[in-house]
Amino acid sequence: MDGATQVTTAPAVLILLGPPxxxxxxxxxxxxxxxxxxxxSTGDLLRAAVAAGTEAGLAAKAVMEAGQLVSDEIVIxxxxxxxxxxxxxxxVILDGFPRTTVxxxxxxxxxxxxxxxxxxxxxxxxxxxxxxxxxxxxxTCGTCGEGYHDSFKTPAVAGVCDKCGGTEMKRRADDKAxxxxxxxxxxxxxxxxxxxxxGDKGVLQSIDAMGQIDTIAEELARIVTAATA
Length: 229
Ligand SMILES: [Zn+2]
What we know:
The protein is an alpha/beta fold. The protein is 47% helix and 15% strand. α2 packs across α3.
């Protein structure tokens, strides 16, 4: 039998690092299906804790209502509660947390309370130039929603939707090349210390995230299998 029967195995803790557009959400969903892990994003965690009215959730609510940022302590407290829930028994994929090395250290301390540690921090590596082209080139048909791309998928007749004949094409404002480039820059600046932190801990793994979704998923599955063995 596989790992599903090993009730003594500690829950896996994975961290996914990757810029917007690297396919983090897609990959996390595949890991959820394949390994029974639960993806935890900071935003979802906060909303759920506030809705559930837990002690940490109420503290977060008060801070947010005052227009302030929720402290690391509160986020860690919410994470502590959440990881202890039964659906997280196989493990979790953390998305968007930690964002700083201070948070990474707090997370290590939290996991140490229950003799746990980070199994792997996986960095989805992108080529910035290619990423800007990929994101800034995309547009959709305003009528039926069919997706197109300046370089990779142009309609048979320029400006006319292949599917419905619509002629109103839409581009998202935040897909502009300059916007994507500055988003990537901010990501690298923010993530570099974390990459170094997990590199020093010996748990950092890097994946080329510019390839096919299935290839990336296979690579990721291989890493998770090895890291949780
Ligand atoms: Zn259309």
